[in-house]
Amino acid sequence: MSVKQPVKQLRLVVHAEDYEGALRFFRDVLGMPEQEAYAGDGGALVTILDAGRATLEIANTAQVEMIDDVEVGHRVAGHFRVALEVEDCAAASEQAAAGGAVPVAPPTRTPWDSLNARFDAPGEVHLTLFQELA
């Protein structure tokens, strides 16, 4: 099967009831630069943040359960989880918690040689911050 129109960008759209809180967390606390911002009729607002390189990870139930078990100790992730690679997981975790994210699991070394921490972040986003160690 040949791909006629390859995907050019992955854009995850988060509906945040607390728009300003979610924007402050992802832009100001985690340091994701603002690419574009738009305002529309009726108070409509959207800000597009640069998340670096994007990938789409498709996992079956057994894989999701195994990842949750390794990183948290039990199943916590919903239908999707946002994972952001950072330079220093411990420092980013401290920033995330101080910036309003609720810690779910501290930075944990995984069998795939990364350091991963879990949070419930503003915008109702289940978040992994990870640092590649290899």
UniProtKB/TrEMBL annotation:
Residues 8-132 form the VOC domain. It comes from the Bacteria. InterPro entries: Glyas_Bleomycin-R_OHBP_Dase (IPR029068), Glyas_Fos-R_dOase_dom (IPR004360), VOC_core (IPR037523). SUPFAM superfamilies: Glyoxalase/Bleomycin resistance protein/Dihydroxybiphenyl dioxygenase. It holds the Pfam family Glyoxalase. Gene3D superfamilies: 2,3-Dihydroxybiphenyl 1,2-Dioxygenase, domain 1. Transmembrane segments: none annotated. This is VOC family protein. It comes from Nocardioides islandensis.
